[in-house]
Amino acid sequence: MSNPNKLVTQVSNTDAKFIGAKLSSQVSMSRHESEGGKPSLSRTKDGKLVLPDDEYLKLKQKRSNSKSRSSSARRTNDPNEDIISHKSHHNYQKDPRAKYYFDVDDYFSKDHENNLIIHLNIQENHYYITREQLLALPESLLLCLFPNGVFSNRNGDVIQTLTEKDEVYIYNFSNKSFEYIMDTYTEAAYDLENYSMQKLYDTYGDPKKKNGESSGGFFSHFSSNSSSSLSSKQTEINLLNENPAIIVLREDLDYYVVETNIKVNPNNHEIWDILKRSCKLSVGAYLQNDLDIYDGLYCSNKVSSSSDPTKLGSAEQHLMDMLISSGLKKGSTWGQRSQDPDKTVISSLTLIRLYNASTKEYREKVAKNFAAFASSNIDNKLLTKTQSHNVLTPTSSRKSRWAKLSAVTSGSKSRSRTPNTEDSINGPSLAGKCLYDFEPKPELNSKLLLFWKKPARKCWWGQVEMRVPIELPFHVELQKDPADDSLTIVKVLSGGYSKIEIPVRVHIRHVWTLEASIVGA
Question: Which branch of life, at top level (predicted)?
Answer without folding.
Answer: Eukaryota
